[in-house]
Design brief:
GO terms for molecular function: transferase activity. The protein is an alpha/beta fold. The protein is built from eleven helices and six strands.
Length: about 270
């Protein structure tokens, strides 16, 4: 019997780094965002009332089909006993995940918001000759239009941020934990201990000086080389933001998880 957990949260907040660490444990399978979330959404849509044949599909069948998606995708070629599926939309699916997998945990990676926008802008500038899939391969725009596009409700950051807030303030937080990027890079041992305690797995000796994850082919095809690059050694790296001061300030107060008074349901924040 395999256990499944979920990695979600904000982009550029350490989910690939976390996966790179977790996969050091041979009992675990973890990776970057994959196709299961999109398939899950599509199946939900196709079994809804917009499909004229949905009258022939019961909720019991919907449950089996959606749960079976994970069994079918993570088939016998995945031999790990503990699976982590990564996708930013999982924060918007806490209720249905609880119904399908009552024991599953959701680890939401978060980061001070200006540095998320900064990290994406830095990628764009670094890859001057390749328009990015993040902006639908459009070569125009400025740092202002890019930050606006990222932050709107359908944007790469805005959707994930709204999904995170929905999860954090919702009624299904018992299996939710927020892992701050700042904690992961400054105290990786403490961060991983918290993760293992949260998912109920025995401790494992991770190598924080030798983390490996390679998605170069995917990143190149997305027109964003370096999107999933993980530095081998985990350490805090100080640098100046590439954002104009007004753009940085716009997002400076968005880290709601840092205010304990707003943590109405006692969500674990590491």
């Amino acid at each position: 019997m395999r256990n499944i957990h979920f990695i979600s949260g904000l982009p550029r907040s350490g989910s690939t780094l976390l996966a790179g660490l977790l996969r050091q444990n041979t009992r675990f399978h973890a990776g970057m965002s994959g196709p299961v979330g999109g398939l899950f959404n599509t199946l939900q849509g196709e079994m809804s009332g917009r499909n004229e044949y949905s009258v022939f599909i019961s909720d019991a069948q919907r449950r089996r089909i959606l749960g079976g998606l994970f069994d079918d995708y993570y088939g016998p070629e995945f031999t790990a006993g503990v699976l982590f599926d990564t996708n930013r939309l999982w924060c918007s699916k806490l209720r249905i995940l609880k119904e399908l997998f009552p024991e599953a945990k959701v680890i939401a990676c978060v980061r001070h918001m200006p540095w998320i926008i900064d990290s994406i802008e830095q990628l764009v500038r670094r890859n001057t000759f390749q328009p990015s899939s993040i902006f639908n391969y459009q070569p125009g725009g400025t740092v202002y239009s890019r930050s606006e596009g990222l932050a709107n409700g359908d944007g790469m950051v805005g959707f994930a941020y709204n999904a995170l807030k929905e999860a954090y303030y919702g009624e299904d937080t018992a299996n939710l934990m927020l892992l701050q990027y700042e904690t992961l890079v400054s105290d990786p041992a403490g961060a991983l201990k918290a993760v293992y305690d949260f998912i109920g797995e025995p401790a494992f000796a991770h190598d924080f000086d030798n983390v490996s994850y390679n998605a170069d082919e995917f990143d190149l095809r997305a027109g964003t080389p370096g999107l999933h690059t993980v530095r081998r050694k985990i350490e805090v790296r100080e640098r100046r933001s590439v954002l104009p001061p007004d753009v940085f300030r716009r997002f400076e107060n968005d880290a709601f998880w840092r205010d304990s008074a707003l943590n109405l349901r006692g969500v674990r924040v590491i």
